[in-house]
């Protein structure tokens, strides 16, 4: 496989995501507007405006419908959400590369 080490590393990271459930203090950068205000002293105007327009996440709080209750289910839901996010990101990057190559950008 051309990028075997990269995919293996990504797999390990995805499988370790449930450790965030037991982490103290929560994940860095996952704050709501009140959390931002608490850390920096104010809510940037652009963030306030975009938060009002943002839609609801399909996997809110890294949970999958039906896998919300119980430690092992919550961990499995977090792994599923991580795979979904990593897959969407990889697909978007792949599409950008394909478009860039097609247009002669790279």
Question: Can you walk through the features of this model?
Answer:
- It is a single chain.
- The protein has 106 residues and is mainly alpha-helical.
- The protein has a domain at 4-27 and 59-102.
- Helices cover 61% and strands 0% of the residues.
- The chain is built from five helices and no strands.
- The protein has helices at residues 4-15, 19-22, 33-40, 45-53, 71-102.
- Helix 1 (4-15) packs antiparallel against helix 5 (71-102).
- The protein is globular.
- The two termini are 23 Å apart.
- The mean pLDDT is 80.
Bin the helical content: 55-70%
Tally of DSSP helical segments? 5
What global shape is seen?
globular
Tell me the Rg in angstroms.
18 Å
SS-based structural class? mainly alpha
* Beta-strand content bin: under 5%
Secondary-structure element pattern, one letter each = HHHHH
Q: How many E strands? A: 0
The overall average pLDDT, rounded, is 80
Low-confidence parts lasting 5 or more residues at pLDDT below 50? none
What is the makeup of the main sheet?
none
What distance lies between the first and last C-alpha atoms, to the nearest angstrom? Answer: 23 Å
Keywords for this entry:
single chain, 106 residues, mainly alpha
């Amino acid at each position: 496989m051309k990028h075997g080490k990269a995919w293996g590393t990504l797999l390990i990271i995805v499988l370790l995501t449930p450790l965030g459930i037991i982490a103290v203090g929560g994940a860095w950068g996952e704050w709501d507007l009140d959390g931002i205000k608490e850390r920096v002293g104010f809510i940037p105007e652009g963030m306030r405006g975009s938060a009002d327009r943002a839609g609801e996440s399909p996997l809110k709080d890294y949970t999958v419908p039906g896998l919300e209750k119980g430690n092992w289910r919550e961990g499995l839901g977090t792994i599923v959400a991580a795979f979904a996010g990593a897959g969407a990101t990889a697909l978007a990057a792949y599409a950008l590369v394909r478009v860039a190559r097609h247009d002669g950008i790279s």
